[in-house]
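hey so u asked for the seq, here:
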Amino acid sequence: MHAPRSFPVLLTLVLSAAYIYIGTRAENPAPFRDVNDKLLHVGAYALLGFSAGSGAYVLGLAPAPVIGWGFAVGHGALLEVVQHFVPPRSAEVGDVLADAFGAALGAAALFGGRLRR
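ran it, structure tokens below
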């Protein structure tokens, strides 16, 4: 059974909403509290960059990996701005850099996967 073509777009929306929800809570959910913060950012935004880029392919947008990377970085940067106004959270440039690195990994994985087809 194959996932519907719209799955990457829906996954991107769900991930985006989940990251905003989690990112505006006083603290991370219990399973993530003992994980390095930057590692969480890299992993989460690698997934978002990959799914957003996959969604761009589905929608016929090019260059899809770049669009996925840009979407994920923009999302991460906007969330950091929001966190500036949500105590006890704070905005950190290092988090945006970790998001950008993770998004680049996700976009590269998408690009590499598309080349192999």
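The mean pLDDT is 94. The CA atoms of residues 53 and 68 lie 4 Å apart.
lmk if thats what u needed
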